[in-house]
Amino acid sequence: MQKTIDNRRVRSEMTKSALMRAAEKLIAEVGVENVSIREIVAAAGQKNESALQYHFKNLTGLLNAIHIERSQQVQEKRAELLNTAHAETPDLSLRQLCSLMVEPSFQLARRSVDFRRYVKAFGHELALTDASPLDVATQHGGGGRSGKQIGQMIKDVLPNLDDQDYGDRMDAAVILCSASMYRQARRKNAFRGKQSDLFLHSLIDALVGLLSASVSSETRALK
Q1: Contacts of 55 (CB under 8 A, 6+ apart)
Q2: Could you tell me the sign of the dihedral formed by the alpha carbons of 91, 95, 100, 101, in that order?
Q3: How far is residue 68's CA from residue 122's CA, in Å, rounded to a whole number?
Q4: Which tens digits make up the pLDDT trace of 187-216?
Q5: For residue 56, what are the CA distances in angstroms to 29, 33, 53, 65, 175?
Q6: Rounded CA gap, 6 and 39, in Å?
Q7: Phi and psi dihedrals of 55, rounded to 5?
Q8: What contacts 180, CB < 8 A, 6 or more positions away?
Q9: Which among 49, 66, 30, 125 is positioned nearest to 40, based on CA atoms?
Q10: pLDDT digits (tens, 9 = 90+) for 22-53
Q11: What's the Cα-to-Cα distance from 157 to each of 91, 121, 127, 181, rounded to whole Å?
């Protein structure tokens, strides 16, 4: 009996994974607005169209599950990189912290074609949201414990920024990371070779400049 239950769970997880990967692939190719439930189910090799509703209720539920899974992967990779960096030096520089903002996703995309498809499918969303990009990223699980740690460390090394300035800069930083990774993911050999390394380090440079720039008198006056 237990073996039968275990087999059902395995099949269920395989079906869910197939649906999620199919959705990422199709959305990366044509955009979420041009993909139907029927197409996702067919691409996942499922004969019953109700499979998606059974596992995720609707398309929104499927997309949320994808974001949660990928966010968890990013959090785990970020925590791993943070622990490694801390083992080498207790006090991380702003550049090291900026690297930890983007390198987890970059490394995952380099190693996994499925993760690259995820970036191609959804990487631009944070750049288009009407809400605070930082808040949306956090709500999607993109922060986690390691994200909160890094956010606080960045704030600590930028004492010239008040809470509003810090929030505005971090929103801009999230948009920069999101849009840049999305654009890079759509290039040929996006995460392989010297050019991809150049992309990564140029993006980190840009983040450092964005976050460390002084607040101008014009900005202060407008505030």
Answers
A1: 12, 15, 16, 19, 62
A2: positive
A3: 13
A4: 989 999 999 999 999 999 999 999 999 999
A5: 22, 18, 5, 8, 29
A6: 29
A7: -90, -30
A8: 102, 199, 203, 206
A9: 49
A10: 999 999 999 999 999 999 999 999 988 899 99
A11: 10, 34, 25, 25
As given in the structure block, the two tokens for residue 44 are: 């996942």
Token pair recorded at residue 101: 């903002």
Place of tokens 């190693």: 111
Give CA angle at 175 (171, 181), nearest 5°: 145
**Angle formed at CA 126 by CA 124 and CA 132, multiple of 5 degrees:** 160
Listing DSSP states for the chain in one string gives -HHHHHHHHHHHHHHHHHHHHHHHHHHHHH-GGG--HHHHHHHTT-S-TTHHHHHHSSHHHHHHHHHHHHHHHHHHHHHHHHHHHHHH-SS--HHHHHHHHHHHHHHHHHH-HHHHHHHHHHTTHHHH-SS-HHHHHHHTTSSHHHHHHHHHHHHHT-TT--HHHHHHHHHHHHHHHHHHHHHHHTSTTTTSHHHHHHHHHHHHHHHHHHHHSPPPHHHHHH-
Residue 73 — φ and ψ, nearest 5°? -65, -40
d(CA 74, CA 112) in angstroms, rounded, equals: 13
Counting every residue, how long is the chain? 223
Instruction: Say whether pLDDT at 1 is over 80.
Output: no
Task: Indicate the residue type of 56.
Answer: F
The neighbour count for residue 107, using CB atoms within 10 Å, is 18
